[in-house]
Structures are given as C-alpha cells and as structure tokens.
Amino acid sequence: MTLFPVFLDLSGKRGLVVGAGHVGLRRARGLLEAGARVTVVSPQAHPEVRALDLELVERAFVPSDLEGVALAFACTNDEDVNDAVLREAEARGLWASSASRPERASMRLGATLRSGDLLVAIQTGADLPYLSQALRDKLSAALPSDLPIAAWSERRAQALTLPEPARSDVLASLKDEIRKAVGA
Ligand SMILES: C[C@@]1(CC(=O)O)C2=NC(=C\c3[nH]c(c(CCC(=O)O)c3CC(=O)O)Cc3[nH]c(c(CC(=O)O)c3CCC(=O)O)/C=C3\N/C(=C\2)[C@@H](CCC(=O)O)[C@]3(C)CC(=O)O)/[C@H]1CCC(=O)O
Ligand SMILES: NC(=O)c1ccc[n+]([C@@H]2O[C@H](COP(=O)([O-])OP(=O)(O)OC[C@H]3O[C@@H](n4cnc5c(N)ncnc54)[C@H](O)[C@@H]3O)[C@@H](O)[C@H]2O)c1
Q1: Of 2, 11, 19, 153, which sees the most CB atoms within 10 A?
Q2: The whole model's pTM is what?
Q3: Whose CA is nearest to atom 57 of ligand 1?
C-alpha cells in the first residue's frame, strides 16, 4: 500500500486517545505539543498522563467519545477495543490509528525528529518501527545543529518580492548555500 504523507495543523482541534498506557502517553504528549486539545479515555492511566493539561475520562471507551473529535488514536492493550475505535471512527468519517492493528487503520505514524519547527517523519510502510527509528537516529546524528533556518526563510520570502532576474539569482544562490550547509 502506498501511503500519502501529510503534516497536520491540529491547533485548537480535539484529539481522542483511547488507552492511557505508555503508547497513549506518547500520543497525548505529541498532540499537546502540536497545540491540540486532548481527551484521554482509559480505566487506568499512566501516572504521567495525570500531570498533563488534558481531559482524562476514567472508564472504558464508548463510541460517543468520538463526538466533537478531529482524529482518534486507539492505544489500548485490547485488540478488540482498538478495532472498535477504528470502526466507529470510520463510521463518522474520522482518521484513526491503532497501536496494535496498524494495517487496519486509516492513519499510520512514524518515527519523528524535531529541531525547532523542522520536522522529519519516517514511515517504513512495512510496520517496522526498528527501521524507522534507526533511520531517524542516523539522520539526527548527521543533521547540523546550527542551521540558520529562520534567516534562510526570511531571505527566501524577501527574494520572492524581487523582480526578475534578481529574484531567480538570489533564490539560486540561497538554494546552493542551503545544499552546501546540509551536505546535499
Ligand atoms: C516509531 C514509533 C512512533 C510511535 O509510535 O510514536 C513507532 N513505534 C515506536 C516504538 C515502539 N514500537 C514497539 C515498541 C515496543 C518494544 C519493541 O518491540 O521494541 C516500541 C517502544 C516503545 O513503545 O517505547 C512495538 C510495536 N510497534 C507497533 C506494534 C504493532 C504491530 O507491529 O502490529 C508493535 C508491537 C507491539 C507488541 O506486540 O507488543 C506498530 C507501530 N509502531 C510504529 C511506530 C508504526 C510503524 C512505523 C514504521 O513502520 O515506520 C506502527 C505500525 C504503529 C502506527 O502506525 O502507529 C515509536 C518510536 C518512538 C520514538 O522513539 O520516537
Ligand atoms: N505503536 C507502538 O509504538 C507500540 C509500542 C508498544 C506497544 N504497542 C501496542 O500498543 C498496545 C498498547 O501498549 P501500551 O504499552 O501503551 O499498553 P499498556 O498496557 O501500558 O496500556 C494499555 C491501556 O489501555 C487501557 N484500556 C484497556 N481497555 C480499555 C478500554 N476498553 N477503553 C479504554 N482504555 C482501555 C488500559 O487501562 C491501559 O491504560 C500494546 O498492547 C501493543 O499491542 C504499540
């Protein structure tokens, strides 16, 4: 299956996390980092989930938990519950992922690498987190830590306001400088 890569702006949207073990904790943190509002539904919760700024509902999942939600993460240790979350999400036209049945889900996750706003996500397409993590670590070690990304972005924005041929000249030299800086 060929997956479509996309980066979501979740600010102000509600994400539902079903199951508050260590995978649910990772999903809740990731959603909060992205500015989403988060509801976690789980009878038991990892202690670190309680410390987060989210709504924790301490009971088993029911389909109405999906009301008002933009996307859902099935992270329980019960495959039937994770399947039910996928099924109910699908019925409501919502994207959902499953920690235990990824191949049945409409949404897959990957290993991620962040440096400021720079975000790299790696998905093997083969349910092989060891490979995506290994590639992420390799890329992380190779990435220069002091890239002047904001300054480059500002120079590009300014160049786009220039008339030709200045615009193309400035953009070409910026492109060369960036490729050299990252060793491409
Ligand atoms: C990269 C990362 C991102 C993330 O999940 O955040 C990620 N797994 C991570 C960690 C991790 N995964 C597992 C352990 C337990 C210990 C171990 O086995 O080592 C740990 C360690 C831990 O949890 O700490 C085992 C595991 N993983 C999956 C299953 C189910 C299955 O295989 O069916 C099982 C077997 C469960 C079991 O049977 O117990 C499934 C998936 N895991 C994916 C991604 C997706 C594939 C991505 C790809 O192919 O590229 C996919 C398909 C899910 C999806 O699409 O959402 C994250 C790194 C976090 C980081 O370091 O940043
Ligand atoms: N994708 C990944 O990266 C990854 C990594 C490790 C494990 N896994 C898979 O994900 C599953 C979850 O892993 P974990 O380590 O977070 O498990 P865990 O056992 O730590 O947590 C499971 C949570 O689900 C909750 N739960 C159980 N039934 C529920 C229900 N009906 N409604 C709501 N919540 C319910 C439990 O109370 C618990 O908080 C594992 O069983 C495994 O299959 C995936």
Answers
A1: 19
A2: 0.93
A3: 111
Q: Is 20 in the pocket of ligand 2 (CB under 6 A)?
A: yes
Q: Give 82's pLDDT tier (boundaries 50, 70, 90).
A: very high
- Nearest residue by C-alpha to atom 34 in ligand 1: 100
Which amino acid type is present at position 156?
R
Q: What is the ipTM of this complex?
A: 0.91
Class of residue 171 by CB neighbours under 10 A (exposed 0-12, middle 13-18, buried 19+): middle
Report the separation in Å between the CA atom of 162 and the middle of ligand 1, taken as the mean of its atom positions: 47
- Give tens-digit pLDDT for 35-61: 999 999 999 999 999 999 999 999 999
- Pairing mode, strands 111-115 and 118-122: antiparallel
Ligand 2 neighbour 60 (Cβ under 6 A):
yes
Q: Any alpha helices (H) in the chain, and if so which ranges?
A: 22-33, 47-50, 79-91, 129-142, 149-159, 166-182
